[in-house]
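chain below, 246 aa
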Amino acid sequence: MPTLSDRQIQLLKIIIEKYIDSALPVGSETIEKEYPSLGVSPATIRNEMVKLTKMKYLVQPHTSAGRIPTSQGMRFYVDQLMKEKSLSTAEEVAVKGKVWEAKDRLDRLLRQATCDLAQRTKTVAVATTDMGDIYVSGAANILSMPEFYDIEMTRNMLSLLDEVARLQEIFLREENPEEDDIHVVFGEDLEEKNLAPFGFVFSRFQTGTRHAGSLGVIGPSRLNYPYVIPVIRYLGNLINEMAGQW
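prediction:
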């Protein structure tokens, strides 16, 4: 992977975080106006954005002069630049209270966990087990995401939610299992055109009866990873703690 200068790293972080917040391509003039502390001209910013595009961290949509991150850019952000927004103690207590009430049976536990995850992240939450069970919550959340104003993208999402085997394949895959308890998969990397605009984040869990599964979310590739990841991690740990005693 190409080495980035400090300024390129700072610029990439700004572009990705603005894109996560707005879902719109980011232009050099916007960056120059909103981040005067960079101390560089729009021309310099444009030149750096061209370099980041050539290095495949950014891409320029054909309808816009701005740039958006590629899956390589998003991966670099998640792995190197992102600062997680930890849940507050009050949030942890609220989450644990709801999930604890459903701890007696795996199906109730996963149904409650997906419901809470969807509500907190405003995405589509999915839980799947190696026994072939699928739990989905929050499908209506896609209506508040600009990407899904595109009827084709909405159709692809709803079709995916009907494809149990495909969901199993994605959410039960192993992504560097030794390195982290959270797995991030970008649709671009799945080599399936219909899934290219999506992002997937999930955590694996294990029950005491030696069954396994995953809990996570699906959304646009610009998921709010700094918040989504700690929420999934916390819920995944709760499921491990509760189900591991069975």
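Residues 7 and 48 are 8 Å apart (CA to CA). The chain has nine helices and seven strands.
thats it, cya
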